[in-house]
Recover the amino acids of this structure.
């Protein structure tokens, strides 16, 4: 529980920092972390309109430039730790879900192609679980979140270099069809 | 690490096999539960095996296999036998062009001719049409030095079975001359991924094929990933992971009937199925408890026995041949490494790899004395072999993205997934590192191999 409290404090601090620092494009750290603004509308992202009666100032996930349009969290190699620059993305979705308890979300974990396929499934799930943990701290109910990990089986891009691997180590936030 | 000495490298590139026909699949029967987008269909089979003998043919057993006499239903059986034996690291096969005579019956054999060519062994055969679509092959294996017959056999077959019969003859010769069982008549399972214009158009197909890449047949096809095929010890079933319902589930499919059962679809990961040597249990990874743990399922009553209990990742269980132990991958030490635990689940796991920053996806050799694994160091992933007696690690493969090692049932070769010019393909390497080959299946990326046991379900 102490760990979760610490996470919450860090999350709040990070969101504050990110919120103050800029609007629009997020800063990336290291060459293998893709620019989220650039890749957030990847072709494999698939979700449907969440329906009428949505709270949160009219923002919905299918608004192209809305707060919820960024739906991909990228990770560093062999890690399921959420990098600070993605905390605001998670927080935006968490707030939306917390104020729309009837909605649910699928967190899809992925890994890059390197190493053992089943280990990558496990790693992808740890990544999805990290995102879920942060969402729950913001008041999202357990029952609103589904996790699935595809490991290295569904790469977002098909290259075989650091750039491609960085785009493939990800969690996609998707809203299922209702 | 053993390196391949370029100066001794003798490259023998053989592009034998090209095939293009459609196979009927007797086992494509579908149970009603299968959705429209999961199909088991027959496809035009087109496979190509490229074998590179990189080292050490000098030390192979010299043998001449004369193209068999008589009218053959399709390809010459003797040529298939020769190709099989050349693919193992154990034989030095005389090229057909160097043969001075082509005997097909014992009376025609002149031992002096073959002795002069430096041959210790000679195999000949004669095929005849025995009517009603059947053929018979008589073959003999001679000891050239002693001038005596070492083995002979008469086998009958249909045209469709001619490649299989040739593989059986290769197995007989292999056994006679090495004392070990051959694997030429076994099969491999693997997953092909056909890319579409968008990621949504990908098709994942679980196939089985002969070890030379011939006779590929679809087991199941899906728009969602299929992973981790595993043969039952009797060779009649495959366990695999399918994401067809947008989440993982473990299935067991009987090859002869096409019937399948979903054995696990708990919340979270249902992955890495591994049959116990007696076929009664299935080890697997489940994350129903909140993180990936190893479980063993009793297949008779589906009860689960928990093997690991740790907050880190525990996955990829593989059984020791005697069934007493499981090796698995865990990042409990910070990085993925291999651990061994009693399959009764009552002992503390013991870490067994310490070299390199990534050791995962292990398989026990059939004799239980070594482990094959994915060995990662500084971003390079290769297949390594560990001798369990002294824990010495030997890197076997030359790639940089090698994964999923599996042993041939006789332990002579390791089949693994690799990347060549960006394309995923299957490769095989002899455990002495002397012979390496690749299996290219047309129509997609190929990965996740599983080698069948000696006895295997065959489609005739």
């Amino acid at each position: 529980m102490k760990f979760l409290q610490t996470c919450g404090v860090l999350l709040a601090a990070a969101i504050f920092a990110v919120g103050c620092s800029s609007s629009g494009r997020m800063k990336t750290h290291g060459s293998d972390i893709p620019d989220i603004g650039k890749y957030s509308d990847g072709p494999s992202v698939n979700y449907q309109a969440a329906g009428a009666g949505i709270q949160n100032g009219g923002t919905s996930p299918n608004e192209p430039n809305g707060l919820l349009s960024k739906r991909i969290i990228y990770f560093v190699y062999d890690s399921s730790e959420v990098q600070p620059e993605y905390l605001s993305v998670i927080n935006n979705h968490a707030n939306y879900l917390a104020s729309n308890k009837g909605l649910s979300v699928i967190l899809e974990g992925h890994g890059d192609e390197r190493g053992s396929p089943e280990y990558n499934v496990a790693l992808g799930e740890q990544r999805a679980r990290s995102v879920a943990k942060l969402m729950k701290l913001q008041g999202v109910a357990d029952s609103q979140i589904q996790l699935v990990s595809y490991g290295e089986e569904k790469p977002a891009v098909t290259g075989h270099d650091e750039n491609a691997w960085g785009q493939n180590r990800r969690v996609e936030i998707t809203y299922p069809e209702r | 690490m053993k390196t391949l000495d370029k100066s001794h490298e003798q490259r023998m590139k053989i592009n034998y096999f090209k095939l293009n026909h459609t196979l009927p699949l007797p086992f494509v029967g579908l149970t009603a539960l299968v959705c429209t987008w999961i199909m088991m269909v027959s496809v035009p089979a087109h496979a190509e095996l490229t074998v590179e003998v990189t080292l050490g043919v000098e030390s192979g057993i010299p043998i001449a296999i004369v193209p068999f006499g008589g009218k053959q239903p399709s390809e010459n059986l003797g040529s298939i036998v020769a190709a099989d034996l050349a693919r193992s690291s154990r034989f030095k096969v005389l090229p057909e062009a160097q043969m001075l005579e082509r005997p097909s019956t014992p009376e025609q054999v002149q031992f002096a001719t073959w002795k002069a060519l430096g041959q210790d062994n000679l195999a000949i055969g004669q095929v005849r049409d025995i009517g009603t679509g059947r053929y018979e092959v008589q073959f003999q294996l001679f000891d050239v030095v002693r001038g005596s017959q070492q083995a002979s056999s008469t086998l009958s077959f249909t045209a469709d079975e001619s490649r299989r019969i040739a593989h059986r003859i290769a197995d007989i010769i292999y056994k006679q001359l090495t004392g070990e069982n051959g694997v030429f008549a076994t099969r491999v399972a693997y997953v092909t991924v056909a890319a579409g214009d968008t990621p949504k158009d990908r098709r994942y197909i679980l196939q089985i094929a002969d070890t030379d890449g011939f006779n590929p047949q679809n087991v199941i096809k899906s728009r969602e990933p299929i992973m981790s095929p595993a043969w039952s010890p009797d060779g009649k079933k495959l366990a695999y992971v399918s994401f067809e319902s947008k989440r993982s589930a473990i299935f067991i499919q009987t090859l002869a009937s096409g019937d399948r059962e979903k054995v696990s679809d708990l919340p979270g990961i249902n992955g890495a199925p591994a049959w116990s040597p007696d076929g009664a249990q299935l080890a697997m990874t489940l994350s129903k408890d909140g993180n990936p743990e190893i479980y063993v399922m009793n297949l008779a009553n589906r009860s689960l026995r928990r093997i690991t209990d740790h907050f880190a990742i525990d996955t990829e269980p593989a059984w020791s041949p005697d069934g007493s132990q499981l090796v698995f991958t865990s990042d409990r030490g910070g990085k993925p490494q291999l651990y061994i635990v009693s399959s009764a689940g009552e002992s503390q796991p013991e870490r067994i790899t310490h070299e390199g920053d990534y050791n995962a996806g292990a398989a026990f050799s059939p004799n239980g004395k070594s482990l094959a694994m994915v060995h990662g160091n500084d971003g390079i992933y290769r297949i390594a072999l560990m001798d369990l007696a002294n824990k010495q690690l030997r890197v076997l493969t030359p790639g940089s993205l090698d994964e999923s090692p599996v042993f041939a049932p006789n332990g002579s070769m390791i089949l693994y997934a690799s990347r060549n010019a960006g394309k995923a393909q299957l490769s095989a390497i002899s455990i002495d590192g002397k012979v390496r080959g690749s299996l290219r299946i047309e129509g997609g990326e190929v990965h996740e191999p599983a080698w069948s046991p000696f006895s295997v379900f065959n489609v005739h």
About this structure: The first helix of chain A runs from residue 2 to 21. The mean pLDDT of chain A is 75. Residues 34 and 167 of chain A are 6 Å apart (CA to CA). DSSP finds five helices and four strands in chain A.
